Amino acid sequence: MRADHERLTGILVEAARREVMPRFRKLAAGEIREKATPGDLVTEADEAAERFIGAELARAFPGAVLVGEEATTRDPTLLDRLGEAELAFVIDPIDGTLNYAADLPLFAVMAAAIVKGETVAAVIHDPVLDDSALALRGEGAWLQGDAGTRDLRVGRAPSPDSISGMVGWAYFPEPLRSTIPARFAKFGQVSSLRCCGQEYRLAARGNCDFLLYGALNPWDHAPGVLLYNEAGGHARMLDGSDYRPRLASTGLLCAPESESWRNIISIVTI
To answer: Which candidate, 45, 41, 7, 47, places its Cα nearest to that of 25?
Structure first.
């Protein structure tokens, strides 16, 4: 598994170097397009990186199911293959496309390996810093780059009135979409980086206390949930069940441990 994980990491790192960073801050107006949903962008870099990653994964892991964000936009039925596939990869060629398109250096290249519906390996690569947050199921989480390798661990949970979190509140259905922001004042600080990958990296390092998400596209969350859990955190659906990449449910909360998870749930859902 370690060798396969290193191969996956190498493919994402190479995609970032070949396709993502050479286009950063150099996109022409026609190379940034809006998808069906207003504000949901795709760029030439997203599509080129996904093509590269998909081709390399197909060569390295013949027969694996490949579920990329951009490919799924064109063919949503790809998601139906995640639950039972012997081996599948979910791919986010650029997580944080809004930031990327706005010339903001806060984005990530992500992928997760999924075996029969269970996430077993994750890579969240920062193309700007050129380092990768990595996780293997049952083997922990770590940060790997030119400065070496160090383990990732979530922080201790502070009291709710001083806790800080990243919240994707706009993607919850009503009434939660309206009621959750009204409770932000009960926390110390609430913000958003507009990039799930960077938020998961931040939380897995102990620099952010909780994460709360509504929409759960698997390419956005399968890598991060494994990273967070392997860093010692407690990531669960809002009903307390385990996260599954193909789960068609709403609402995910990541907190340092079960008690803080319950405390946060009691604030945001009452």
So the answer is: 45
Cβ atoms within 10 A of the Cβ of 128, count? 13
Q: Angle of helix 218-230 relative to helix 196-204, nearest 10 degrees?
A: 0
What pTM, to 2 d.p., does this model score?
A: 0.96
- Token duo for residue 63: 């027969």
Dump pLDDT digits (tens) for 203-228. Answer: 999 999 999 999 899 999 999 999 99
Burial of 248 (0-12, 13-18, 19+ CB in 10 A): exposed
141, 209, 166, 237: CA torsion to nearest 10 = 70
